[in-house]
Automatic annotation (TrEMBL):
Protein's name in the database: Acetylornithine aminotransferase
Upper taxonomic lineage: Bacteria, Pseudomonadati, Pseudomonadota, Gammaproteobacteria, Chromatiales
GO MF term set: transaminase activity
Quaternary context: Homodimer.
Catalysed reaction equations from the record: N(2)-acetyl-L-ornithine + 2-oxoglutarate = N-acetyl-L-glutamate 5-semialdehyde + L-glutamate
């Protein structure tokens, strides 16, 4: 190859598999809740890498943890354990219902482990017939073939041949639909406390309590997928804490690494014992670099002042969105909790969330969608009031751009 390589959006089409359609801009630098592209244009980040960058970009605590660990030890494999993994596991256990932790690299892997554990638990505790997993329409649990089948969006799982069996889908927030499916053959019910990809739909307290009671009645495990809601995103360390309902297995990723790939499955000693030596594993799971960063995330996020700030920021977001909506009448409601919010488009603008997303980018704001009818916000948990105000000013211009076009 002669000459200097032109690293631009066209190179993506040349060398990358076409399963993504990324924006034309290529970010090169981030600090806090601001990001700059190759041309030096600045954006306010309300997307957080899809609820991942829990402490914004290049947070000093995370940069410090990563660079410190990078000079010590990068990788061992699980033939040996390591100090950062043990410290992180202890902190997760101390802060939650859990007694045991399994580390993976992503939310999908954490869910894969959870589903395999539920099946193995049922097989050893009861029988091979107790293998059914109940999930919900519009749910999302990852992109491995097992997790995407458990997820309630056929568009993501169709077209790859025969799917894993014994997976049923009920209707979210409809307890009767769970009652109609659950039986002695059910090994687990899996749910997101707030459906993320499905449109930022929070579970009602009655629904979660009802599902917990049904799981107890039919001796099934309750798995809570907190990949998107976990690690302070809703104003508590994990969203289950808002409900007063304890899961049997919890999965966590995204915000846990603050941008570094890491996932974890949390459970009790009694359930964990069914993943005996050799039954499941991960080459990179529990990697010292990932765990050192995640430990710094937990240390930083799991503080009363940070969790309180998340709920204060939610109020600010809602105030700004209400003011914008008063002018332009585009949203029917604002759903979600903490720094995971969905602005639901009203009938007039239904199906047009991508237009708002693209207009936001035009105005220098990174936002998200959650399906065709919802604009999603999942910014840093420590975003400043000034950045919220600036971002909302830009979002108002984006709304104006779409609404008056």
């Amino acid at each position: 190859m002669t000459g200097e390589l032109q690293v631009n959006r066209a190179l993506f089409d040349e060398v990358m598999v076409p399963n993504y359609a990324p924006a034309g801009v290529i970010p090169v630098k981030g600090k806090g809740s601001r990001v700059w592209d190759q041309q030096g244009r600045e954006y306010v980040d309300f997307a957080g890498g899809i609820a991942v960058s829990s402490l914004g970009h290049c947070h000093p605590a995370l940069v410090g943890a990563l660079t410190s660990q990078a000079g010590k030890l990068w990788h061992l494999s699980n033939v040996m354990t390591n100090e950062p993994a043990l410290r992180l596991a202890k902190k997760l256990v101390d802060a939650t219902f859990a007694e045991k932790v399994y580390f993976a690299n992503s939310g999908a892997e954490a869910n894969e482990a959870a589903f395999k554990l539920a099946r193995r638990w049922a097989l050893e505790q009861y029988s091979a017939e107790k293998d059914q997993i109940i999930s919900f329409g519009k749910s999302f649990h990852g992109r491995t073939f097992f997790t995407v089948t458990v997820g309630g969006q056929a568009a993501y799982s169709d077209g790859f041949g025969p799917k894993p069996g014994a997976v049923l889908h009920a209707e979210f927030n409809n307890l009767d639909s769970v009652k109609a499916l659950i039986s002695d053959k059910t090994c687990a019910v899996v749910l997101e406390p707030i459906q993320g990809e499905g449109g930022i739909i929070p579970a009602t307290k009655e629904f979660i309590e009802g599902v917990r009671a049904l799981c107890d009645q039919y001796k099934a495990l309750l798995i809570m997928d907190e990949v998107q809601t976990g690690v302070g995103r809703t104003g508590k360390l994990y969203a289950y804490m808002h409900y007063g309902v304890t899961p049997d297995i919890l999965t966590t990723a995204k915000s846990l690494g603050g941008g570094f790939p890491v996932g974890a499955m949390l459970t009790t000693t009694d359930i964990a014992k069914h993943l005996k030596v050799g039954t499941h594993g991960s080459t990179y799971g529990g990697n010292p670099l990932a765990c050192a960063v995640a430990e710094a995330v937990i240390d930083t996020v799991n503080q009363p002042e940070v969790l309180t700030k998340v709920l204060q920021s939610e109020k600010l977001f809602r105030q700004h969105l209400a003011a914008i909506n008063e002018k332009y009448q585009v949203f029917s409601e604002i759903r979600g909790q903490g720094m995971l919010l969905g602005a639901v488009l009203n009938d007039k603008f239904k199906g047009r969330s991508r237009e708002f997303f693209l207009a936001s980018a035009d105005q220098g704001l990174m936002a998200l969608v959650a399906g065709p009818d919802v604009v999603r916000f999942a910014p840093s948990l420590v975003i400043t009031d000034a950045d919220i105000a600036e971002g909302m000013q830009r979002f108002e211009q984006a709304v104006k751009q779409v609404a008056t076009a």
